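User: Please predict the structure of the protein below. I'd like the answer in structure-token form so I can feed it into my own downstream comparison script.

Assistant: Understood. Taking the following sequence of 369 residues as input:
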Amino acid sequence: MKILKIILFSLALLHLPSTWAEGVQSVQSELDAKATQLINDGTRLVREKKAAEALAESEQVIALYEGKFNDPNIRYYSARFSTESLMYLMEAANKKAGSALVESSNWAYGYFLKAYALQDMGRIDEAKSALQSALALSPQNSQFHSELGNIYEREKNWPMAMKEFQEAEESATGFSPPEQKNLDLSRAWRGLGFVYVEQNRLDDAEKMYRQCLDIDKNDTKAMNELHYVQNLRAKQGSAGSLAVPVNATGSTQSNSQSAIDPVKLYEAYFATFFAATACRGPDDPKLDVTNLVLAGNVAGNETARLNPGMQPADVRKMLDDRLAKVKATVDGQIQRGGCDQPGIKSLVENFKKISARPMRQAGAAPGIQ
């Protein structure tokens, strides 16, 4: 059990010669300096949506290390700081795996950068393989576990996503550098919260998001997800209700509704689209999604305005994740009660109204005057 491993490791550190701990930390070599520059350049390229060029940078990083450290009789590791390094050396000794050598974290981060670029290129299986290579070098790197959890999350493989986020939490607790620990924990907890929501374990999800906010009260991702959980719980409290505000998609709205959260309204509009798509007949006219696209632009712009530190890709992912939850809710409702139930019929009728009534301006949602 990893928690026991952390406790035993902490006790062992008390009896280690200080010279051993000092020997793990080395001055950055010329190779490491070159790798650092390549990773920095690759990270910039990913942010600029130049995934293919970023992939090439990552391959150079990997080649630098694997061209030099390739002795089959040595177990190689890649670590962020001394505590993690010592853990790997002790683990190799306990397993009697022979010689072990800990190198710069750049080696594993070369694979992490590769995984990130591959995801942007839609090559998910290859990205997963790259992350597994990163974890082979850095099995206690919380960030790598969380990123692999994100891939399983995208695949809706909830058991594997849960496993990786739990690994991320435990690794962050025991082995993340002090300056990175809170960031790693928050990342793991948000991932766990997402999986708990999918499993309808709303109390557990809320706990995760509140822990994030205990660390950073300005964690907007956790705050948004906490609001989602609270709204979902409130909706589930009404028999037969959907986890989306059906009445937000009807006819004329009151003036007080001009303050509706654009993201919530966006979710409500897409609930009508998902219902109409699932329940439309073979002779029904083609669905007009013009207003939904415009509403999505409003939601994206407002999210970016409220979260100036978020990258455009993160904004898109947040909106996509939320819409995936809405779709799952609508699909589940249809599966349980069919298209003839009042709630679904209302959503389908509302979509017809939204399609027929164009938005008046780019900054307004349908129905808001």
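That's the full token string. The first strand starts at residue 74 and ends at 79.
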